[in-house]
Amino acid sequence: SMLENRIYDKLTDNDIKLNNARGYLFSSPGRSKAIIDEVAKSQKKIITDIDCELNNLYSGFNDHQSLIDFVIDFIGQQKDNHSDIDFEYNVSVSKIPSPERYFALLKILDIFFDNIYKHSEADKVYLDVSENDNNLIITIKDNGKGIPVDYLKNSECFSGINRAKELVFLLSGKLNIDNYNGTIIKIVFEYE
User: Environment class of residue 125 by beta-carbon count within 10 Å: exposed (0-12), middle (13-18) or buried (19+)?
Assistant: First the structure.
């Protein structure tokens, strides 16, 4: 699977980095420490990916559910947990994404909706899931205070939005974040 390949690649890369760190241990201890810190962060990311996959396996996640039902369930949970926000949605899709993309979509929505609740001060959220050709298009709009234009450049690499950006990247997708009477997030990736 995509996760297995990514974990294998990261572990191989980390092994090479650790060998490099050994070489610098006596000649450049600071560089060696920096490499080891980088490997430690990578290992934590791998553990997070595995935890997410385990959550997927144990949560009754249904990757055969239609996207329409998936979005209705997701918005229903959001309404139950955030009754102070008005939610609207539109879903116009006919295909079912691969399990990896389905799970990534759930994680991406969780991250962006969590960010809306924590930071936006929005009282309205709109989710649109559509398709064209072989692309799945997700648009999230809120009427909150917006995201600073330079947020992705200046935020910590482990921030929620950067994690979502990484998920989109791993799916060979595109992420666009704009401010216009709130925040507009557009994600596009292929069904596969």
Answer: buried
Residues 144-175: b if buried by 16+ CB within 10 A, e if exposed: bebbeeebeeeeeeeebbebbbebbeebebeb
pLDDT, one tens digit per residue, over 56-106 is 654 555 656 777 888 888 899 999 999 999 999 999 988 877 777 777 888
Helix, strand, or coil (residue 68): helix
Contact 105, 148 (CB under 8 A): no
State residue 12's pLDDT score.
Answer: 86
DSSP for residue 60? T
Collect the ranges in the chain with pLDDT lower than 50: 58
Q: Which residue do the tokens 């990311």 mark? A: 45
pLDDT at site 58: 47
CB-based contacts of 187, cutoff 8 Å, min separation 6: 108, 137, 138, 139, 168, 173, 174, 175, 176
The separation between CA 47 and the C-alpha centre of its own chain, rounded to angstroms, equals: 16
